[in-house]
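ESCALATION

Customer reports they have been waiting on this structure for their group meeting. Please prioritize. Original submission:
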Amino acid sequence: MTLTKKLEKIAAWTAQNNKEEINTLKKESGHSYFEKIENQIGEKLPTDFIELYKNFNGEDGESYGVLFGNRFMELDEVILQLEFGVELLKPTERKILDEEKSNAILELIALAFHKSIKLEKWERATFECSDGTYSGIRVYTSDGERSDTSANRDYQDQIFKLIKEVYLLEKESYNWDTLEFEIKFDGSHTVKRTDYIWEDNMSLTSSPPLAIRNKYFHHKWIPMFYDYGGNFIGMDLDPDEKGTKGQIIVFGRDEENMFVIADSLEAFFDLAIEQMIGENNPFDGESHLHEIFKKIKNY
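Update from on-call: job pushed to the front of the queue and completed.
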């Protein structure tokens, strides 16, 4: 049985065994998106992925998904999700290409923020900003007292615009996550470019151990099935030392304890069908699909 036939069998069972309206497989080719995805991940797509998406490009409808409620993603949706992983990549050699222009914009941000502070007497102020946002505003007086405040709204649009401008200027060559400003009352300032390391702020695990890399998102994890809540079942093209390239894994916004469901897309469908037609079908209940597969795999 081909991959497409196996997915059709799963979709048919899902439609027959649920009271809710079920989406239908979109019987059109997604081949026009293959090159863009390959450019995103930096390598050729696996043959099993191509085989499936040559025949189906996700599903039609906004109801219950064809994979036991999970949505089979269209490739334009896949591309949007992959962009987040690509955004996390940092240049091998990080540098400021147009330092004079960057410094001029940073000077304007500091000046606008200085003018926005509402206190009459203060010594220094600190704040962090990222692409189009700023937060963590702290103003200190000469005796060390700290006031958490907000910038005057008259300057917000100007500050947002300038942050966006310097971010776009430095994105390709540096790609910082946050700028940390310290501004003195006399107008002088310092700026530090920093990164947000997801892995340092989360307790990520892999089951089996060393099968999945210790990442929150990865540009070589291709999402394929979506739970409508920011979590995915997808294909891992850059496994850890004890993993298998092309393995099917669970990852996403709520998945700190990631796990391997199967070593390949075909093995994943085979496992799903085996459980689906078995005596103790686990897909009949109310449990989240990821938890069902975790129990099947005894993780």
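Sent to customer with the following note: Residues 99-116 form the longest helix (18 residues).
Escalation resolved.
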